[in-house]
């Protein structure tokens, strides 16, 4: 059975918009026969990387920190797919950044040049062959996610594995209204399930599926007006 490790970096865990967007994607992966192990970065006690690089120079492949990453490293070594799921902050939630920095022990410090850049690779005992990103944003534009997409692409390139795509969901909270998917939101959720199935079945996600995941759910001007109206109402209530 194909294995995937999924890291949800949202501090809101399964209650947040990222968790709700991620759920159908995981369902799709499991329907295609994958074993997906889901972890919440905000619930794990993960110390920040100290940057001493003992995991490269003194104890290769071993982090100096004894915390909950110790249990996660073996699972990462066995998984073919690593899914990173996160909301856009500025640019990432702190717990997600700590997790990403702590991937360093999985990298072999044998440097090479690929496409004009200095890169490393995952160690030989790491089975990960692809990294996928699920990213949500509260802003209307998909472009608001570009920095986070770039980070995930760089991680994959530095590790010498495929970046299998970014499932970008702008104004993600508008998938639902009063707790239930809207008609347009249901189309997005179905596309997320399809993306999970495609990833496991073929190792890639159809570009048309990625477009369906990112499709606008309203006009930009409409979104701006609604958001500003909500802010003014909230401010008025606070002042009153």
Number of helices: 8
Distance between the termini: 58 Å
> Care to count the β-strands?
9
Task: Provide the CATH superfamily.
Answer: Flavodoxin domain
Which segments are poorly predicted (pLDDT under 50) over 5 or more consecutive residues? none
- Overall geometry: globular
Report the sheet with the most strands, covering strand number, pairing sense and barrel closure.
5 strands, parallel
Mean pLDDT: 95
CATH fold label: Rossmann fold
The fraction of residues in strands falls at: 15-25%
Order of helices and strands: EHEHHEHEEEHEEEHHH
Radius of gyration: 19 Å
Name of the CATH first level: Alpha Beta
If strands are numbered along the chain, what order do they take across the biggest sheet? Answer: 2-1-3-6-7
User: In percent, how helical is the residue content?
Assistant: 40-55%
**What would you say the CATH architecture is?**
3-Layer(aba) Sandwich
Q: What's the domain count? A: 1
Describe the structure.
The structure is a single chain. This protein has 240 residues and is α/β, with parallel strands linked by helices. The protein has a single domain, classed as Rossmann fold, CATH 3.40.50.360. Helices cover 41% and strands 22% of the residues. The protein is built from 8 helices and 9 strands. Strands 2-1-3-6-7 form a 5-stranded parallel sheet, sandwiched between helices. A two-stranded antiparallel ribbon has the order 4-5. Strand 6, helix 5 and strand 7 form a beta-alpha-beta unit. Helix 1 crosses helix 6. It is globular. The N and C termini lie far apart (58 Å). 36% of the residues are buried.
